[in-house]
Amino acid sequence: MLRDRIVWVLRRLILTIGNLWIDFFMGFIISSNPNWIPRNWSNQEIRKIGSQFTGNVINVSAAQDNDKQGGKYKDYFPNAKSYTISNYGKGIEGISGDQDEIILDLSKQYSGSKYDVVFSHTVIEHLPSVEIAIDNLCNLSSDVVITVVPFIQHYHGRINSYTDYWRYSPDALINEFEKRGFSTIYVNWNDDFPYMSVYILHIASKYPNKYWRLVPQSKIPEINVCGPGVEFSKKLWGWDRTLFRRIGEYIGSRCVIDKTEGNIGHPGE
Predict the structure, then answer these.
(1) In what order do the strands lie in the sheet with 55-59?
(2) Of 38, 44, 60, 173, most Cβ neighbours within 10 A?
(3) Looking at the domain that runs over 36-231, which CATH code has it been given?
């Protein structure tokens, strides 16, 4: 039918214009608000608290120890007694060549030397066993574990090197470290811009009372109210519908050719 053809063309035109606008908008947002980029956000968080930790620090699976902003994570811990990196594998994300580097396979249970502070940035989502991954972080530490993990991020890895297995929530991290004798002293996530990837920063300690004055106040995850991805969900599903959202819904509902496409209920309804 001619009407259906016109609706199809209109729908494709609006979609194309919308995607071009999103590209422009994302380019503007990223360049004008660099701290909304999840890696930049987590780096800023770690810089704020890194100086509070002393003793022996290890960056686990650190690759070249680059913070991807032109710096080294070693400089985030200026009061550390020592700073060590570990790696396992080959290539850009494997062995760094540093003379003090430790070769450590996180997929196998660790029972060697301990460090005061264990730092792990976007590593454990790449390990097939949650239990062994968090066991190893805790077995490496005599006091503190600092972990950054993605909560919302694309499927990623490196061909013939490592792949992508898990996404952790704040409750998962709190629970898993609690089971191993580590209490959460800080948890936070980036949610300034809901269309960016979301990272979670979690810090746990065997001796939490040592740090209650040294770290900022944590966010408290609350179902449907406060948590990573909640702001994204609000935007996606329109909990707080703006006028533009309602106009879009009205036009979109008039562009449905197959009425079954608009059925969002349960199967069989």
Answers:
(1) 102-103, 80-87, 55-59, 115-121, 141-152, 198-205, 183-189
(2) 60
(3) 3.40.50.150
